[in-house]
């Protein structure tokens, strides 16, 4: 495989094609046999007979504490010998995996984070899905997992949403989290390219995480999330596990996320798993700037929300409109010392994190080695504008090419089969009614249902 510096991080069609070519022509994977490609038209469908519980009150969803996945998921197996098998849409359930699977021992796992939105016009939308599926291909290539067509993955996501969307996104203004994942599943131990893999897509209910202002704890000198030539640009599991101990420390000290710094200069990179932005006045020119870390060192993730913020800002905020001052959009390296100086000189106007999970979250405080740094506005004007514009696009209040409408077909549950199962259960209960354990068991069933 080409060195990381030569790999595409830009999610353009040319970059994606380059990633596919690199993945498919690697040594030990060039054969005369044409392998099967990922093909949504071969989808096999099995509809659940045991629907999962829908939690109507999203405020009761506990972040990271409960499985609130929808009724179905999609799985697709891949092998080095045959390529991609037929996709399956089936009832959500556990994975059958060898204890020696490659993903468990060598971190051959990558994923994406996306959301589906129920618009205020009733339509179901996903936000810039082509960017996510293209980035997932870049991630899979980085860890030697099989290539695939990003458009085929997008089509499978739409099919799953069309199936579970009607039930799980019932009200305007709500959303579902989408998690496409690709793992190495081969059962043979040994450090080599996975010879078997599985792609799967799950949907889950998700709490709203961006309503409160965030407080960030700057990372310590002995804790680094990513480095040049590494894999910080790829959305792979190995990026996240090592960061959890720092995140635990932040939470224990009353902060929401870690602000990740790099090298002795304390270069600012990301906030937790989100991209980080500041709005400040340039020290030399006095002009307002929207600043975020660059992609050129491949330290940070090319976030889809990040990209969208930058594009919206360039399109709508670089010219004064009478109500707000125009700003310059800047991608460059900057340090905590720059941030501290801006705060002391009253130039630090706003700060926010941007990502799929936390969306646009204002940052009210950053703690760095005993010193607290406060932007002038905890809920700034520019942050509010960018958040409002993005929400309007996502929920269909503004017609925009970034919001892709998903036609909903859904599948009807087999009522006759359900009636048969219920009759069998009733008959079993009748046979058990004289058992002393019957009454408490019946109460438990009633409580669960």
UniProtKB/TrEMBL annotation:
<dbReference type="InterPro" id="IPR005786">
    <property type="entry name" value="B_amino_transII"/>
</dbReference>
<dbReference type="GO" id="GO:0052656">
    <property type="term" value="F:L-isoleucine-2-oxoglutarate transaminase activity"/>
</dbReference>
<feature type="modified residue" description="N6-(pyridoxal phosphate)lysine">
    <location>
        <position position="235"/>
    </location>
</feature>
<protein>
    <recommendedName>
        <fullName>Branched-chain-amino-acid aminotransferase</fullName>
        <ecNumber>2.6.1.42</ecNumber>
    </recommendedName>
</protein>
<keyword id="KW-0100">Branched-chain amino acid biosynthesis</keyword>
<keyword id="KW-0028">Amino-acid biosynthesis</keyword>
<keyword id="KW-0663">Pyridoxal phosphate</keyword>
<dbReference type="GO" id="GO:0052655">
    <property type="term" value="F:L-valine-2-oxoglutarate transaminase activity"/>
</dbReference>
<keyword id="KW-0032">Aminotransferase</keyword>
<dbReference type="InterPro" id="IPR001544">
    <property type="entry name" value="Aminotrans_IV"/>
</dbReference>
<comment type="similarity">
    <text>Belongs to the class-IV pyridoxal-phosphate-dependent aminotransferase family.</text>
</comment>
<dbReference type="GO" id="GO:0009099">
    <property type="term" value="P:L-valine biosynthetic process"/>
</dbReference>
<dbReference type="InterPro" id="IPR018300">
    <property type="entry name" value="Aminotrans_IV_CS"/>
</dbReference>
<dbReference type="InterPro" id="IPR043131">
    <property type="entry name" value="BCAT-like_N"/>
</dbReference>
<dbReference type="InterPro" id="IPR043132">
    <property type="entry name" value="BCAT-like_C"/>
</dbReference>
<dbReference type="InterPro" id="IPR036038">
    <property type="entry name" value="Aminotransferase-like"/>
</dbReference>
<keyword id="KW-0808">Transferase</keyword>
<dbReference type="GO" id="GO:0009098">
    <property type="term" value="P:L-leucine biosynthetic process"/>
</dbReference>
<dbReference type="GO" id="GO:0052654">
    <property type="term" value="F:L-leucine-2-oxoglutarate transaminase activity"/>
</dbReference>
<dbReference type="GO" id="GO:0005739">
    <property type="term" value="C:mitochondrion"/>
</dbReference>
<dbReference type="Pfam" id="PF01063">
    <property type="entry name" value="Aminotran_4"/>
</dbReference>
